[in-house]
């Protein structure tokens, strides 16, 4: 048995990016630990922001983790920094916002968990934080340093293959001119940079269940929420669309293509 720690910014991030991998590793008998930086108390939802939303979202996180087979859930206790309308940092944020945390201090806290668990693997996000959320960028910074402190041998950046995503966005822009195609040109990771393509189709049911656990994130805001739209996709198509999860491991030879998080290049 090996231990994998999945580090995310907010509840529901795990369901969107790494749930299939988490379910797969748990089913294989590995120990899966889920760490979140915040309770997501500033996320869009059809209820007030603050402690009430944070408590509900943490309950949803525990339900998601149970459906994925996680052995442990840890919240670092930072405040949700929120997301501005322009996709950047907001001026009004809590005093303990994750984006304002001391990177070294936060990394030491995460490293303590990695050492306690004797973790062989840590997942974070790519340097851009996927789509640029400030808390996601902090996950990259804090996680990278924590793995260095703890000596965690495998550090994977959870991401999305930008190439087919960008193709789909450009096609959609023909019908929805308001789509900002340029914002997707630097999001996530280019296909050539991805080192791990993990087939999680056998665990699509668990991934869908993890998404469904985050009921507060299926509605709210001015438009249709991404999570709600994903859950409406028919099961066979869901397995196809969400049947692969992508990761980047830095320092591997160019062209490396691995199929399992614990695989090593030959």
* Number of separate helices: 10
Structural class, by secondary structure, is: alpha/beta
Approximately what portion of the residues adopt beta-strand conformation?
A: 15-25%
Q: Residue ranges: pLDDT <50 for 5 or more in a row?
A: none
Q: How many E strands?
A: 7
Major sheet: arrangement of strands: 3-2-1-4-5-7-6
- The general outline is globular
What's the end-to-end separation, in Å? 22 Å
Q: How many whole angstroms does the radius of gyration measure?
A: 17 Å
Helix content: 25-40%
Major β-sheet annotation? 7 strands, mixed
CATH third-level topology:
Rossmann fold
- Which CATH architecture? 3-Layer(aba) Sandwich
Q: Element order, helices and strands?
A: EHHEHEHEHHEHEHHHE
Q: Please tell me the overall pLDDT.
A: 90
CATH class: Alpha Beta
Pfam family, one: PIG-L
GO biological process, one term: glycoside metabolic process
Keywords: Zinc
GO molecular function, one term: hydrolase activity, acting on carbon-nitrogen (but not peptide) bonds, in linear amides
């Amino acid at each position: 048995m090996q231990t994998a720690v999945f580090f995310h910014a907010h509840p529901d991030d795990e369901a969107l990016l790494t749930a299939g991998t988490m379910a797969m590793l748990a089913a294989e008998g590995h120990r899966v630990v889920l760490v979140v930086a915040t309770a997501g108390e500033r996320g869009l939802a059809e209820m007030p922001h603050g402690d009430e939303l944070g408590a509900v979202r943490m309950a949803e996180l525990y339900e998601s983790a149970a459906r994925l087979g996680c052995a442990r859930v840890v919240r670092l206790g930072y405040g949700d920094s929120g997301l501005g309308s322009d996709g950047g940092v907001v001026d009004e944020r809590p005093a303990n916002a994750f984006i304002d945390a001391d990177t070294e201090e936060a990394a030491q806290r995460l490293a303590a968990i990695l050492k306690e668990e004797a973790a062989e693997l840590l997942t974070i996000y790519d340097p851009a934080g996927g789509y640029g959320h400030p808390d996601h960028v902090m996950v990259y910074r804090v996680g990278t340093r924590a793995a260095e402190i703890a000596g965690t041998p495998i550090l994977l950046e959870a991401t999305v293959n930008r190439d087919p995503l960008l193709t789909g966005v450009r096609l959609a822009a023909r019908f929805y001119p308001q789509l900002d195609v340029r914002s997707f040109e630097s999001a996530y990771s280019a296909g050539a940079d991805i080192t791990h393509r993990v087939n999680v189709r056998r665990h699509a049911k668990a991934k869908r269940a993890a998404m469904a656990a985050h009921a507060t994130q299926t509605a709210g805001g001015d438009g249709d929420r991404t999570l709600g739209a994903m859950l409406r996709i028919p099961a066979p198509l869901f397995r196809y669309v969400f049947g692969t999860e992508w990761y980047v491991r830095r320092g591997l030879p160019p062209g490396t293509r691995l199929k399992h998080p614990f695989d090593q290049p030959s």
